[in-house]
Amino acid sequence: MNKVDKEYQKLGHYILENGAKKEDRTGTGTISTFGYQMRFDLKKEGFPLLTTKRVAFRLIVSELLWFLKGDTNLRYLLQNNNHIWDEWGFKHWVESPDYSGPDMTDFGLRSQTDEEFNVLYQEQLTIYQEKILNDDEFSKKYGDLGNVYGKQWRSWEGADGQVYDQIQYIIDEIKRNPDSRRLIVNAWSASELASQLLPPCHYAFQFYVVEGKLSCMFSMRSVDYFLGLPYNISSYALLTYLIAHECGLEVGELIFTGADVHIYSNHIEQVKEQLSREPRSLPTIKLNSEKKSVFDFEIEDIELIGYDPHPTIKAPVAV
């Protein structure tokens, strides 16, 4: 039985039945609950990519590799047709003195209800994407998202003035001392929040080694149940597979711990549709065994096998 979709659906029902209505930064409104945990056995249950709707695995892979490269600029993602982060960079541009196009105030909400505006928005977004890809100066200024995940994971700046590669530390420490209780990566840097276009939602994770298996628990301050969480679950599962591969371990458990777990008010019907669907068998993944280091992997080195989900369910992103 596919317990991954079942646990995910259980959480969806819980939020709808017990959540409180809350306003939020985006102005969209949510149904929210505080504090929830899910556990997935990566070894027994298959790769945790939801089957009750199609989730774009290639986007998960390219985003994770972007983090692992220590990159914070959108160009790599756009080169790989990944648009997960576009809206935050676009917002930075249209709110700057350098922008002279049509008014894009509240573009996230307006594009959902005003067809005429949506045409203008899509035109400006395309201009933005092309400039990120082809204009080095523009890309440097408006394609960089600030000190987000890639920077924190690979180039954490300490109070001592030193720069720390947290991912390399984790790998080295697992190999040296697998029983360590300090296998932690932290992406929440209070002194750098102002320099991040979106402060980290999944802000910390910790590994645990026992009986030759690597488990991972990741913690999130803010959880978009419908759009974000399916990607987060699969991304941290993939990270666990990659770290285990380099360290000569099998995979164990993936544990999600969420603080403010919410459904946006304009996602409720989509959530109900997904909750009505029967889970299918989970896929598996295959890593290129010739790649030894986590940092050597490219998109084509990670193969998804046997994925047969229900159709995609579209919903707007709250920016």
Describe the structure.
Helix 1 (3-18) crosses helix 12 (268-275), helix 3 packs across helix 11 and helix 7 packs across helix 8. This protein has helices spanning 3-18, 42-45, 57-68, 74-79, 86-94, 107-113, 115-134, 136-143, 149-154, 166-176, 228-247, 268-275, and strands spanning 20-22, 30-41, 156-157, 163-164, 184-186, 202-210, 213-224, 250-264, 284-287, 302-305. By secondary structure, the chain is of the alpha+beta class. The longest helix has 20 residues, at 115-134. The strands form 3 sheets. A 6-stranded mixed sheet has the order 1-2-8-7-6-5. A two-stranded antiparallel ribbon has the order 3-4. Helix 11 links the parallel strand 7 (213-224) and strand 8. It folds into 2 domains: 3-72 and 147-305, Thymidylate synthase/dCMP hydroxymethylase domain (Thymidylate Synthase, Chain A, 2-Layer Sandwich), CATH 3.30.572.10; 86-144, no CATH class. This is Thymidylate synthase. Its EC number is 2.1.1.45. (6R)-5,10-methylene-5,6,7,8-tetrahydrofolate binds at residues 224, 318.
Care to count the β-strands?
Answer: 10
Main sheet overview: 6 strands, mixed
CATH fold-level name of the largest domain: Thymidylate Synthase, Chain A
Low-confidence runs: none
The strand line-up of the biggest sheet is: 1-2-8-7-6-5
Rg over CA atoms, rounded to whole Å, is: 20 Å
Structural class: alpha+beta
The overall pLDDT, averaged over residues, is 95
Distance between the termini: 36 Å
Strand proportion, as a percent range, falls in 15-25%
- Which CATH architecture of the largest domain? 2-Layer Sandwich
CATH superfamily of the largest domain: Thymidylate synthase/dCMP hydroxymethylase domain
Indicate how many domains the architecture comprises: 2
Shape descriptor reads globular
Give the H and E element order. Answer: HEEHHHHHHHHEEHEEEHEHEE
Overall CATH class of the largest domain = Alpha Beta
Roughly what percent helix?
25-40%
Number of helices: 12
